[in-house]
Amino acid sequence: FDSRNYAKARGILKEQLNKYPEGDYADRAHYWVGETYLVRDQLPEAIASFNRVSRFTRSTKLDDARFKVALAYLKMGKNDHAREEFRKVISHYPESDYAARARKYLTELGE
């Protein structure tokens, strides 16, 4: 991933998800698949991958993934959807660092 070979990284992650769809690291694999799409501006795919993280209710990536969904919507110009996702970050993860960042984005969006 650090070498910027996102397609290769995504392929490896998806291969692992096919083998172990409910494995111990599946939530993080979905998250990182989302990141590979986000950095390439493949935003609908990024959103879908980040949303898959929510299936893993004990994941440590829930707040991060929800925040990235909001950022993807923002990049798409879908500000209403972005606001909704930023609000979810704040309401579901109020103590998260992402909640503070979400508040800043909402302020910039006029809330």
Helical percent range?
Answer: over 70%
Number of strands: 0
What Rg, in angstroms, do the CA atoms define? Answer: 14 Å
Strand content: under 5%
CATH superfamily, by name, is Tetratricopeptide repeat domain
Unreliable parts: none
The helix/strand series, from N terminus to C terminus, equals: HHHHHH
**How many domains?**
1
| CATH fold-level label | Serine Threonine Protein Phosphatase 5, Tetratricopeptide repeat
Mean pLDDT: 95
CATH class: Mainly Alpha
Number of helices: 6
Features:
111 residues; Serine Threonine Protein Phosphatase 5, Tetratricopeptide repeat; globular
Q: What is this entry, summarized?
A:
The protein contains six helices and no strands. 71% of the residues lie in helices and 0% in strands. The chain has one domain: Serine Threonine Protein Phosphatase 5, Tetratricopeptide repeat, CATH 1.25.40.10.
Write up this protein.
- The chain has 111 residues and is an all-alpha fold.
- It has a single domain, classed as Serine Threonine Protein Phosphatase 5, Tetratricopeptide repeat (Alpha Horseshoe).
- The protein contains six helices and no strands.
- Helix 1 runs antiparallel to helix 2.
- 32% of the residues are buried.
- The mean pLDDT is 95.
